[in-house]
Design goal:
With 190 residues, the chain is of the alpha/beta class. It is built from six helices and 14 strands. A six-stranded mixed β-sheet has the order 1-2-3-4-5-6. The longest helix has 10 residues.
Length: 190
């Protein structure tokens, strides 16, 4: 079993929408922001079978196409309830800290990482971590749009200690990086 990760950049905020594809082409869509039609085209062009949507947090640039995806594919939408409530997002399944989601024999583990928002999560898989807007290459997410800087600092100090250096980080905006690079070069983590 393995997960292949691809993404497209969508919307005016250049948000990364990720596609986690299993061996049978079943796919988890992470943070469908921007245009639902653009995401649908990518899904169709690549023969993906959408099985669920997971939101790393509730900001509109990461959730804008949730409704479109739900209407088009009828799959469940997962998000932390705190962000769903704060940002008025309809969802099917709540995300909780430590939760494991089985995805065609692959395990996706949810890490609650509050700070950017109080319901921010990261998604941990085999060798990768989708960080949403918690960690970017060389920096972290802002905390003035439904988050808290002190909470973010606590999250950064406590939640990422066990993540191996070789783990690839896939952020909500910008380029991928590794945990090792961020420990060396990100002033918030070094």
């Amino acid at each position: 079993m393995s997960v292949r990760i691809s993404h497209i950049v969508v919307g005016i905020y250049q948000e990364n929408t990720y596609f986690l594809k299993a061996d049978d082409n079943s796919t988890v869509v992470v943070d469908p922001g921007g245009s639902g039609k653009e995401i649908e085209k990518y899904i169709n062009d690549n023969g993906l079978k959408v099985s669920m949507v997971i939101n790393t947090h509730g900001h509109p640039d990461h959730t804008e196409a949730n409704k479109y995806m739900k209407e088009k594919y009828g799959m469940p939408v997962y998000i932390h309830p705190e962000d769903a409530q704060l940002f008025g997002i309809t969802y099917d399944q709540p995300l909780t800290d430590g939760q494991e989601i089985d995805f065609n024999g692959n395990k996706l583990k949810i890490m609650l990482t509050p700070g950017h928002t109080f319901g921010s999560v990261c998604i941990k898989g085999d060798g990768f971590l989708i960080t949403g807007d918690t960690i970017f290459e060389g920096t972290i997410g802002r905390t003035d749009l439904g988050g808290d800087s002190r909470v973010m600092m606590h999250t950064l100090k406590t939640k990422f200690n066990d993540i191996p250096d070789e783990t690839v980080l896939y952020p909500g905006h910008g380029d991928s990086t590794t945990m090792g690079n961020e420990r060396k070069f990100n002033p918030y983590l070094s």
